[in-house]
Write a structure and sequence with these properties.
Blueprint (H helix, E strand, L loop, with lengths): L1 H99 L5 E11 L17 H13 L4 E4 L2 E3 L5 E4 L2 E4 L2 E4 L2 E6 L2 H7 L6 H7 L3 E12 L8
Antiparallel strand pairs: 1-7, 1-8, 2-3, 2-7, 4-5, 5-6
């Protein structure tokens, strides 16, 4: 009985020992698996975090690239706008020069000055003293220019900065083209200013009348002038 009791105790001890060893192994294995699982989870988190950081860095680079391209586009647009303004200015200046040189037709408000030979010539007087001469045309043209006329025409022929007059009896030649009286001198500009300049006492009109020239002034809201003809020089 004593031997059997020892065997039972020994068996119980061995069983307990086996159980503890088995439990310890199982626990160790479980902990090992948990550690491995934790390591894999950390690796995944690290991988995803690194991916996220890489994406954020890439986004930052793309934003900087976009900003740079946007600034270049803006600069290009500014340069283009500036070029367009310069071209528009050049075109406008060219147009003004062409108007001054008579290469383009022109239209606008202004005034006309009509000079006529005297209707009455005394018998004892010399007829040459009662007709329009070159100096009379010059006086009117110079007064119009002084009053700010932008364009001038004589009997429809454009007057230019290099135009010349020549008087041959009752006929006046403008740049080689003959014009008989009456002489209609048209000017484009401010009608009120132009008219006022000819209304001054002892001004151009009084001087022309003193030379026996008939003068007629007329303001106009629309005066048309043709372009300079190439045959006019």
């Amino acid at each position: 009985m004593k031997l059997k009791g020892k065997h039972v105790i020994l068996a119980f001890v061995l069983l307990a020992t086996g159980f503890l060893v088995s439990y310890s192994y199982t626990q160790a294995d479980t902990e090992s698996q948990m550690v491995k699982l934790t390591e894999r989870t950390w690796e995944k988190e690290y991988f995803y975090r690194k991916q996220l950081l890489d994406l954020e860095e890439k986004n930052r680079e793309l934003r900087e690239e976009l900003q740079g391209k946007t600034e270049k586009i803006q600069q290009f647009e500014n340069n283009l706008a500036s070029s367009e303004r310069q071209i528009a200015d050049f075109v406008e200046r060219k147009k003004k020069l062409q108007l001054l040189t008579g290469e383009l037709p022109v239209e606008g408000p202004g005034m006309t000055v009509t000079l006529r030979d005297a209707e009455y010539i005394p018998d004892e007087a010399h007829a040459n003293n009662y007709i329009v001469h070159e100096p009379h045309i010059h006086k009117v043209v110079n007064e119009l220019k002084s009053a700010g006329a932008k364009a001038i025409a004589i009997n429809g022929q454009r007057y230019l900065s290099n135009s010349y007059f020549a008087c041959t009896g009752p006929v006046i030649t403008v740049d080689g083209t003959q014009h008989p009286a009456p002489f209609v001198i048209s000017a484009i500009g401010d009608p009120e200013v132009l008219f006022s300049s000819f209304s001054l006492k002892n001004g151009v009109v009084d001087q022309l009348v003193a030379d026996n020239i008939e003068v007629e002034l007329e303001k106009s809201e629309a005066i048309q002038m043709d372009a300079r003809l190439s045959s006019e020089g």
